[in-house]
Amino acid sequence: MNATTGIVGKMLVDSNLDKQLSFLKPDFLRDMFEQSIGFVSLYGVRLLVALLVLLAGRICARQASNLITRLMAKAKVDDILTSFIQNIVYYVMLAAFVVAALGQAGINITSFLAVLGAAGLAVGLALKDTLSNFAAGVMLIVLRLFKKGDYVTIAGTSGTVQALSAFYTELSTPDNQKVVVPNSSILNAVIVNTTANKTRRIDLVISIGYQDDIPKAKEILAQILAENTTLLKSPAPTIVVGELADSSINILVRPWVRTSDYWAVRWDLLEGIKITFDKAGISIPYPQTDVHLYKEGSES
Predict the structure, then answer these.
(1) At what angle do helices 128-143 and 109-126 cross, to 10 degrees?
(2) CB 158 within 8 A of CB 173
(3) Integer Cα distance of 29 and 296 in angstroms
(4) Is 232 within 8 Å of 199 (Cβ atoms)?
(5) Is 60 exposed, middle or buried (0-12, 13-18, 19+ CB in 10 A)?
(6) Do residues 239 and 173 make contact, with C-beta atoms less than 8 angstroms apart?
(7) Are 186 and 136 in contact, with CB atoms under 8 Å apart?
(8) pTM to 2 decimals?
(9) DSSP states of 54-72 as a string?
(10) Which of 2, 39, 118, 218 has the most crowded Cβ, counting Cβ within 10 A?
């Protein structure tokens, strides 16, 4: 009985061992090899073609964006607009070739686009502020309210425009600080472009004392303006009495100058006026208040 049980157990062990080692048999290996060959022949070519399409698409997108850059450079289009259009063309073409590559790989494009659209909707709702900045950036670039190198005041910040991207605008302040302003806040606020025009008026308020000679002061101011060769002859400068203030007579001096020369000429004029007035004995008074004291008579 024991011998019979041992024989049966040995047969079961051998059977299990055969099953476990069946993958080493020539027939099994041949079947696996044939299946691998079939898989590679079916999907390998598709994957290779998809990779080639993706590579060719990347090259074509890069060449197209470079071509647009060269054409716009010849047409002297603004650098900001050129950069924006270049990026749009590159990524749109690249996305089209990615979709084509997925189709070559055997992926159902319709289902993929449906899933992508649903995901895009969810992402759009989550990133509505970012998309608002993008839409504002597109409007700023299309409307061309300012360009690179302009000195502007936007969203309460003043500086020179260094870059305008799809989401933000980068400014450089006069003391060389980098300021990044979201595009949506720019489009919803007042935009002051200081350097948009080639000429600019300098507005000065020169105060003299009530005891000073007004015609003499105006004559000195006119002479200072005439001697400054940087000032424009047309439009002609204005020199008028603008206000009889509490402590002074305020004379308005308004010459015109090239925008690029604005600050240098303004500083020179202020220095020249002060030095010339001192030599001519014309005062520039401080704010002052007259106090009158009355003494009550003593009771008899």
Answers:
(1) 90
(2) yes
(3) 128
(4) yes
(5) middle
(6) no
(7) yes
(8) 0.58
(9) HHHHHHHHHHHHHHHHHHH
(10) 218
Helix (H) or strand (E) holding 227: helix 214-227
DSSP assignment, residue 297? Answer: P
Closest residue by Cα to residue 155 from 193, 186, 195 = 186
Pull the structure tokens for residue 239.
């020199």
List per-residue pLDDT tens for the chain, 300 residues long.
544 555 545 555 455 545 554 544 555 556 655 565 655 555 666 777 778 888 888 888 888 888 878 887 787 766 666 777 777 788 888 888 787 777 776 666 666 666 666 666 665 555 556 777 777 877 887 788 888 889 999 988 899 999 887 788 999 999 999 999 998 888 888 899 999 899 999 999 999 999 999 999 999 999 999 999 999 999 999 999 999 998 899 999 999 999 999 999 999 999 999 999 999 999 988 877 777 787 776 554
* Contact call for residues 53 and 104 (beta carbons, < 8 A): yes
Amino acid at 180: V
Laid out side by side, the sheet with 238-244 consists of 204-208, 249-254, 238-244
Which ranges of 147-213 would DSSP assign to H, the alpha helix?
Answer: 183-187
Task: Note whether 245 and 197 are within 8 A (CB).
Answer: no
Element (H, E) at 180: strand 178-182
Residues 296 and 300: their CA atoms lie apart, in Å, by: 12
Which domains occur in the chain, in start order? 28-126 (1.10.287.1260), 145-193 (2.30.30.60), 199-280 (3.30.70.100)
d(CA 116, CA 103): 15
DSSP helix/strand/coil, 256: strand
Chain centroid offset of residue 243 CA: 43
CA distance 119 to 100: 20
Residue 179 tokens, joined: 């300021």
